[in-house]
Amino acid sequence: MAERRIEFNRTPPMTLEPLLDAPLAVQIHVAAVTPAAALGAYILLRPKGTPRHRLFGRIWMALMVVTAISSFFIHELDLIYGFSPIHLLSIATLFGSWNAIAAARRGDIRLHRRIVAGLYFGGIVLAGLFTFLPGRIMHAVVFTGGQWSAALAAAVIGSILAAIALRRRRGRLMAR
User: Fold this and answer.
1) Interacting residues of 142 by C-beta distance below 8 A, sequence separation 6+
2) Among 39, 45, 129, 135, which one has the highest count of C-beta atoms within 10 angstroms of its own C-beta?
3) Are 18 and 137 in contact, with CB atoms under 8 Å apart?
4) Nearest CA to 130 among 69, 174, 86, 78?
């Protein structure tokens, strides 16, 4: 009697091959933006003005600048001489980084907070969501294989956004 084996879906949930096969600029970009996303969420959720906040803020800002500069060497979406509208976001990120630092140094914390929140939500969250569209490298990295990886990625992103929104709402209620 022949042995019968039950085969489960053994497709890998995620693979780094598309990223490892990508151009160096893409690899540098992802290597900078990935820790920037996590560190930025941490900074937004933790107390402000502490030495830790300032240290992590400097690191985050440096990661954002590397992310923005590396994007100018990525020409995956070639709309206008190798560039696309996303490169306008990179220019805005560079100017925003400069202005956020200048605002903090002159004590304009309200403006600093607005710029940094805009950089995080526009430059990381919103732009990051577009990288997961079909046909993009990060889509191939994250969504290759089982369907649960897509749900997991959505849950992580949603959890971070919900935590930030709840923390802000709680801060507004306590300020009243």
Assistant:
1) 14, 132, 149, 150, 153
2) 39
3) yes
4) 86
Which residue range forms the structural domain that includes residue 96?
Answer: 24-73+81-133
User: Which tokens go with 168?
Assistant: 């802000």
Note whether residue 139 is domain-resident.
no
Average pLDDT, consecutive stretches of 10 residues, N- to C-terminus, the chain (176 residues): 58 72 90 93 89 95 96 77 78 95 95 93 85 80 64 67 67 56
Asked if 139 contacts 9 with a C-beta cutoff of 8 angstroms, the reply is: no
20-31 residues labelled b (16+ CB within 10 A) or e (exposed): eebeebbebbbe
Within a domain: 62: yes
Q: What is the pTM of this model?
A: 0.74
